[in-house]
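Sanity check

After download, print the first record. It should look like this:
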Amino acid sequence: MNTVNRPVRKKDAMQLLTGQPVYTDDMAPKGCLIVKLLRSPYASAVIKDIETDIAMKIPGIEAVYTWKDVPQEERRFTLAGQTYPEPSPYDRQLLDRRVRYVGDPVAIVAGADDKCVDKALSLIRVEYEVLDPVLDFRKALDNPVLVHPEENWESLCPVGADNKRNLCAHDESSQGDIEKVLGECEIVLDRVYHTKACQQTMMETFRTFCTIDTYGRLSVVSSTQIVFHCRRIIANALHIPKSMVRVSKPRIGGGFGAKQTSISEIYPAFVTWKTKKPSKIVFSREESMTASTPRHEMEMHVRLGAMKDGRIRGIDLYTLSNTGAYGEHGPTTVGLSGHKSIPLYGKAEAFRFVSDVVYTNVMSAGAYRGYGATQGLFAVESAVNELAAMLHMDPIRLREQNIVRQGDVMAAYYGQENTSCALDRCLAKVREMIKWDEIYPAKDMGNGKVRSVGMGMAMQGSGISGVDVGSAVLKLGDEGIYNLLIGAADMGTGCDTILAQIAAEVLDCGMEDIMVFGADTDASPYDSGSYASSTTYVTGKAVENCALKLREQICRLGAKLLGCAYDQVEFDGKEVIWDGEHKVSLKDIATASMCGNDILLEASATHSSPISPPPFMAGAAEIEMDLLTGETKVVNFAAAVDCGTPINPNLARVQAEGGILQGIGMALTENITYDSKGRVLENSLMQYKIPARVDVGHIQVAFENSYEETGPFGAKSIGEVVINTPLPAVADAVYNASGLRFRELPITPCQIVMGRIREE
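Expected structure tokens:
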């Protein structure tokens, strides 16, 4: 292969290095209206009255909108970027008379500049009827206080939702008689694990600008992962046809799932549609921390049944998920907590997975890298680590005895066959990389310092089976170069480069010959969007098929020019050749297509996969702990990943390193907490502690390649699986160093010190 499985430099690498990329706010027209939001100071309240007259008198103020400007009887909508019909309930209004968390929008102010808008915001007077909030998600289900009592609440899909019970979703699945199997087990581990909400903290906050185009349509440019879903969401929020909305995205300064939800787009869209003037909104870091969509807080009750020889026979998992004030991604996220954790243990005879997603009066949760699998894997993998400790078994050996293998049918993964799997090799590789046998469980380093190791496994998916759609259009230009049109969104992941590599491999050309244009609802072919680890596997296959079609068209026109049959020619990427001697160049073929031609040198393809082959990963953390202060640092993290055939090993490695760092942050430092009134305490990066690269020691990533026949050139996904193993690995390393078992994240130095004091 010429380009696939090669460490090709990103197409935009030099532009990034020299500071040339243009982001959303850089493109906003000069003089556009500045849009900002007045937000609720209460977790639950009804707006009795709101006065905007004084605010409107501020020079430069164009408009102030409140719930009175939004028909409350109209159909509600969801901000979740999901394929229609969305599993997430329709539970939002653009502006609602009822506010449901501290930070919920109360009014939209649009004006000439920041100064006048800020002044106007301070002059709006709101009278609230303050209500009792539901802040504890463990007490939300069937609570007499309802987060969504409205009658026009709607669930489009049968996800077990009931707003009269504060229930956003409920699901059950099982195989075998779990109670019988657990009753026969010699050991039944019964544990509860808790993961708190945490933020995506992408560098570029949420931002959007809107204009009215030549034809009177609403044109929206936004930092989004989901241009096509975003178009539908805006149309639903404004109650206008989708045909009147165009959405495009420039370069994105990171997303991590946060921009799979349309956080910012609807507000400037509303302003521009009403005023017919350009407008923009740029979320502050504080807004992005207090009024966005963090990871779902979850509590997981695990019962794990095994024999004394280490054979795991049954897994029973109940997950309670906190969706917050609105249901974005709640029904879908929770499913991964079980369906991406239980299947790892393919020898189990029975499983049961039950889940509830509940509404509360805190910030609405949403998509974040790992998407529910992160939480579930922390619970199940931690339980397996606890089982290993009880049995005095090496955790890696225990897993080698129980793991799913290629060819196994994964009952807990929707009955899908494991078509490609190198998990056994990943385990062996990690043992070698981390020098497990030299350190496990711990080594005394002297001076109160201890080094220890812990490990975990993970699986994810490659798109949503039978749902996600990827598409591509390829055109041959008259200079013999190709234009690749896609609807997937590169948000720093390098997907533009990877998709170009796939096209270049099929067309036998250089990367410089592939021009990528993406993510514009008017010009791009339909694509579900860049989420659910779908881009390389789903859209990549569409690109491969599209390139094969175009290659055939090039050969047909070349044969026509040479005066021979199509099946007599070959194409080497530069020339179509007949009989080894007669040739016509690609440039001449392209030129010939412009005059008197009946063979279109343009191809399109769309792809949706009935299966979602999981990537696999094993990860091990080596930590150093100061037993006196509780300070814990990851000094080495070893990861072995099976993502099929990596299209670009360099970009795959960067994805892995970034995900591992985020997982370490979730394990040790990142935390969203609320006060008694539902206010977020961590409203900036001064309080919310994400790890910098210098805070973590060496991160080693190796690839143990399998070959997935349904993927482009054997590829599976990698974007999400990489965040999942640090959580159980670090938690178990902490146990091996201190003797303290923590089942709630993050694990802070204070908790370690206090735990040691209690133990003494």
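If your output differs, re-run the checksum step. Summary of this record's structure: The longest strand covers residues 312-324.
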